[in-house]
Write a structure and sequence with these properties.
InterPro entries: DUF1398 (IPR009833), YdfO-like_sf (IPR036696)
Oligomer: single chain
Helix content: 25-40%
Strand order of the largest sheet: 3-2-1-4-5-6
Number of helices: 4
Pfam family, one: DUF1398
Number of strands: 6
Radius of gyration: 14 Å
Structural class: alpha+beta
Strand content: 15-25%
Shape: globular
CATH topology: YdfO-like fold
CATH superfamily: YdfO-like
Largest sheet: 6 strands, antiparallel
Protein name: DUF1398 domain-containing protein
Order of helices and strands: HHEEEHHEEE
Length: 131
């Protein structure tokens, strides 16, 4: 394992909104993160290296109920607001839960972010802008 959860948390604390996301991704990629899965329910995020070894943050907040039905149109509106710096992380996670988004997978090799629903279906894939 090339990185520690403390190193990742230190970089994550620098993120104030979605506008800071591309810079954060570049920093953790430099630490050796290959991909990660973030779960809306409690904020747990699991980070993997190239050998598929992982570290996990554990729950970050009180559990949210993720809606059974995905509202992609409303989620897209809230995602754009977050990416422009209009919401903080917890607000964004609540927006995800309200719109049926279970979590997201970030692949640092392809520089893509895939949002998925409660049954694991991909509902939206975005390319991460370079810094």
């Amino acid at each position: 394992m090339k990185f520690t959860i403390d190193e990742i948390k230190a970089e994550h604390q620098k993120v104030k909104s979605g506008a800071d996301f591309p810079k954060y991704i570049q920093k953790i990629k430099n630490l050796g993160v290959s991909y990660y899965n973030a779960y809306v329910k409690d904020g747990n995020t699991e980070y993997f290296d190239n050998e598929d070894e992982s570290v996990s943050t554990g729950a970050k907040y009180e559990a949210l109920k993720v809606n059974e039905v995905t509202n992609l149109d409303q989620f897209t509106v809230r995602l754009q607001l977050h990416q422009q710096g209009g919401t903080d992380y917890l607000t964004f996670c609540k927006d995800c839960a309200n719109n049926g988004i279970e979590g997201w997978n970030v692949d640092l090799n392809t520089m893509s972010c895939t949002y998925f629903d409660k049954v694991g279906n991909s509902v939206l894939v975005e390319q991460i802008p370079s810094v």
